[in-house]
Amino acid sequence: MSESLTRNTADQFAILGSTLCLVHCIILPGALVLFPSLFALGLTDEHYHAALLKLVVPLSLLALFMGYRRHRKFAVPLWGLAGLSILALPVVAGHDVLGESLERIFTIAGSVGIVVAHTRNQSLCRACE
What we know:
single chain; mainly alpha
């Protein structure tokens, strides 16, 4: 598999994972009101957020590092690291420390930051090819 394909795939999966965090954070509360049986799936559990984070972090780091080696724009991995840090904060600090509103704000901001970084990473890498 070529490095370009690997990098692009890692970017796409990191975007998907971040988007899942975002969707989970925004849509799940309303969905639980409409469909209380969703509680049985365990999607409200903090372990779900931690599991998504365990997917997003390594993929993001891999893709951002590979992209940086190609385009040499330091702002892109820096933006991605900021997004990852913001996304990780609710998992590290916990619901009890941040509360539901701050947890949601950090998750949304971190997810958007990661998606922006990977989209820019893909764009810059395509321009180098």
